[in-house]
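Retro notes, item 3 of 5
We never archived the inputs for the ribose-5-phosphate complex last cycle. Fixing that now. Sequence and ligand:
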Amino acid sequence: MQPNATPKPMLLFFDDERESAYRLAQAACLQHRAIERHRFPDGELKLRLPEALPSRVVILRTLNDPNEKLLELLLVAQTARTLGARHVTLVAPYLAYMRQDIAFHPGEAISQRIVGKFLASLFDAVVTVDPHLHRVSTLQEAIPVPNANAIVLSGAPLLADLIAARRTQPLLVGPDEESAQWVALAASRHGFDYAVCRKVRHGDRAVEVALPKLAVQGRAVVLLDDVASTGHTVAQATRLLLAAGAASVDVAVTHALFAGDALQVMRDAGVQEVWSTDCIAHPSNAVSMATSIAQALDQITHNSNHEPH
Ligand code: R5P
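Structure as it came back at the time:
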């Protein structure tokens, strides 16, 4: 280590994310400790951190099922600071509440802005993967931590590599216009053909999808998106693609939210394989983001070394 270089942080994690924490700790060469969590009979939580914390701490918490986890982050971040941490980074491979980025109807909470400010009040840096940023262009606008400390990674390149290994001359299709950024990124890596559908949402489980004007006859189609939640967007696109003559339809998503019977909904529509990154632990996980997240943490440490003291 260079003289005066910032020491490596300690990774803190919750027991339900033990496996991804181990992968990240190994990739980033970080010491790691579990946060003890007790739920009282009345539902309140007691959390306990290691007493001796270094000055830099990284907290891993992926934010699917986010409501209780946001309260955990409040308790953990503030406790970490009282125990001596001076720089606290959040690694949230899946970032919740990013889709409600405007008031679609008068009176609606703009959740992205509110949750983003809350996280920025707790953390010095944030690392996430394919956040659903639609009407804002940077993560820093959604979570106003210092600019260089809001790091966005993408699962699309790794999913593209996986698709290249599993399918010959696939056609990548994004199920809606918002997926264009990830589909274009994945396609450019291997020179895949790609296109995106148009989608109109009528309700949580009611979507209307229109296929792009493109021949799909006989093609191995892979639907690629940041997230599938109820699975109805993917299911609707799959039915149309198979009806139009696609040879097969597989699904690749960064975030396997898969609420309720989503997997079954997709399978019933004719989806063959479902691949996801390990941002949210799920049996469909096929690629790991640990190495990319480790590089982002190194970048944050490097930035700190060059901040004025
Ligand atoms: C939103 O635009 C996202 O990219 C997904 O397309 C959407 O969240 C999928 O939702 P669901 O699986 O519930 O149809």
